[in-house]
Amino acid sequence: MKSAKWMLPVTLLLLSGLMTAQSITNSKVVANVPFDFMVNNKIIPAGDLVVGASDTEGKILLVRNFDAHTSALASATHSEQAATSTDTVLCFKRYGGQYFLSGIRIQGSNWTYTLPETKAARELRAQHAPISETTLLAVLK
User: Fold this and answer.
1) Do residues 36 and 43 make contact, with C-beta atoms less than 8 angstroms apart?
2) 0.85 exceeded by the pTM?
3) 3-state SS of the chain: helix, strand, coil percent to 5?
4) Structural domain boundaries of the chain?
5) Could you read off the pLDDT of 78-98 as tens digits, one per residue?
6) For residues 69 and 51, is the Cβ–Cβ distance under 8 A?
7) CB atoms inside a 10 Å sphere around CB 11
8) I want to staple 28 with a disulfide (CB 3.0 to 4.6 A). Which of 20, 33, 52, 53 is the partner?
9) For 41, which DSSP code?
């Protein structure tokens, strides 16, 4: 009977640990991006994309397109949101005709990884280029 009292708290603790394990530091985000986009002022061609953390804290992301032999490093901040994400998605901002990777949300997690605005994006925004946001479904592997 005494062990039964502890099973629920221990189970909840383990489940919460599994939820926090759903992060980009433990996995890779894979997606097929149908357009060229910029990361840290570098153009990444359309195609199959892999994003992963290159450090243990998820503050530096490595964005790779293996087919195009192109990669870029970008600093990222992560913040905790009130609700957990129902899907893994890549978030892009589009200024005029140019896309910029702006964030990543991980399914089952309430963390959002945000990439800083690049110099090119700031210049296009200053020129009052039309702005829109696009999200693409991705897979966490």
Assistant:
1) yes
2) no
3) 20, 50, 35
4) 2-140
5) 888 888 889 999 999 999 899
6) no
7) 10
8) 52
9) T
